[in-house]
Sequence to fold (279 residues):
Amino acid sequence: MSGPGASRTAAPEGAPANTVVEEPRITERPSAVRLRDVGKTFRGRRRRTSALEGVSLDIEAGEFLCLLGPSGCGKSTLLGILAGFVPADSGEVLVDGRPVKGPGPDRGVLFQTPTLFPWLTTRQNVLYGPKARGALTRETEEEADALLETVGLADFRDAYPHELSGGMRHRAAFARVLINHPSVLLMDEPFGALDAITRAGMQRFLLELWQRHHMTIVFVTHDVEEATLLGDRVAVLSGRPGRTKAVVDIPLPRPRAYEDTETLAFVTAKRRIREVLER
Ligand SMILES: Nc1ncnc2c1ncn2[C@@H]1O[C@H](COP(=O)(O)OP(=O)(O)OP(=O)(O)O)[C@@H](O)[C@H]1O
Ligand SMILES: [Mg+2]
Fold:
């Protein structure tokens, strides 16, 4: 990881090849996530669904944790609880030592469909958060421009979301979240809807970003290969109601690259996770 100051970075896909980017600081605080015996049941008029039961998990500051499990096991619910969108019924949910009581800019959330305001340009979208909080300064604007460089969208700062490709919209959503200096990034199958090439480009981009800034990331996926490539550890949830079945270490060296997926060590790690998932 580079120091806290400016650093030179390879330009992401879509940016001019020789782009040198001045890196803004993205994370400010050390962070950690602590879940203890977290449970959640949805109670509808006709249906009662126990989504999570007794989930306990500790995530270190700067760790990249992937959350894996079968469809409907409560992965999005768990992420929603961490984001503060969904209240837990029971247990303890702490981020940076503080109980989660609602959404906050300290937790940046990225979904499968990037959330951008269609009537705002890329740059206006990035600046939306600080503006809404009354924290728009010259410095923030400069940071937005630097972040647009980082995500390879400097040339598209005045474009509207409908003028961007799928991958570009994702990168714009990234910049929009990163300007808030989140201590935790919560990502719910963010690349699930992308084509294979764009997806590989976004995985590479995320790995580079994490390698430089070591933010804490909780990344939901049901793709074993993606979890193995990205995670320091993979938390595997059981079928509904989701419980922590196992937390598997990924003993692959960093920095990682998409090409690592072809190595024997990678295939072995992937097989271990698949075994846990299927047992
Ligand atoms: N708002 C809600 N109201 C009622 N039930 C819900 C709600 N949100 C989720 N559920 C239920 O909780 C369970 C877990 O859903 P969740 O979306 O967390 O699963 P998931 O692991 O993210 O699945 P997928 O991999 O398909 O995205 C499901 O049975 C779902 O029907
Ligand atoms: Mg989900």
In short: The CA atoms of residues 269 and 275 lie 10 Å apart.
